[in-house]
Amino acid sequence: MTPADRRPYTVITPVPRRTWEEAVRDDPLALPTQTPQWADAVRATRGYRDASRLYVWPDGTRLVLPMVRRSPLPAPLAQHLSWPLDFGLGGVLAPDGEVTPAQAGAVITDLARRSLRPTYLRPSPLADRVWLDCAPPGVTRRPRVTQILDLSGGFEDVWRNRFRGAVRNQVRQGERAGLDVERDSTGRLVPVLYGLYQMSVQRWARQSGESPRAARRAAERKDPYRKFDAVARNLAGNCHVWVASYQGAPAAAIMVLRQGEHAVYWRSAMDKELTRRTRAVHLLMSRAIQDACTSGARYFHLCDDHPGSSVEAFKASFGPQRYHTAGLWLARSGLRDALPRARTTRSASPTA
Fold it and tell me: Taking the model in full, what pTM does it have?
């Protein structure tokens, strides 16, 4: 690293909300899960505290890192997360989506010093290369596989050249099945989605031999109703719930988040028997992808998968590209302390 790269930088925490919103607008790779509204939903669900960080370099470059920490422990003892494992992708927001290796190294070193406990950083697969390349050997990596559908060329091109033939046939079956499809952005359909999710939990319990009661408790800890409700309320018009019903009975539902050029398929649930007969999920996916294309999205994110699973195969049938990526657990141990300590100041703005 050159002496020029070892320049000082300042950290402001928490990030003033207006600055955070400007960073989202200035980064074409910004995801809905990197917005202050998403942070509001995370904190409303789990009771975390805002630990977002604004990095400012002398040349005026500003990087914003969405992050929370566990409450009520003091910062040096608390775990810092961008984001908690069940809240999707975090990572740094940067002007034009570009971060230099020197900047990435500075942020990694700063985060590793934040607490006695490891800090988790999960950058977007579209922006993770510099982070993975700059992470020292001592950093623990959590390998992930995610899929992202490129929407360039519009829906007709996606339909003809990316959807597999079997998917197109299943979507046509769904169109002929007599399904009623709704899309809502107010949260009105969240109870329907969650009801189908609870039905799915019971089905998974039967398949695995787990006690239905134990499965229900585990699901409520990981994905309580308040989590879905908080996402819908805080993202408001950027959270779309799609529901397909057959003769008045909900068959399938999906939740899709929007930010700029990005649509994120975040959650889904179904009545498996009704979906098998009507292809409701295939129809909803096609409708959501078409809606994303029409409204100017460039990417449709299908999120993480377990390699070899039926869910991964289902997503792959829509023609996305697979990304091998990782989350980073950053700790003091094993990290070379090569960069100057940041000057940290407290923001005068209220906590976001």
Answer: 0.90
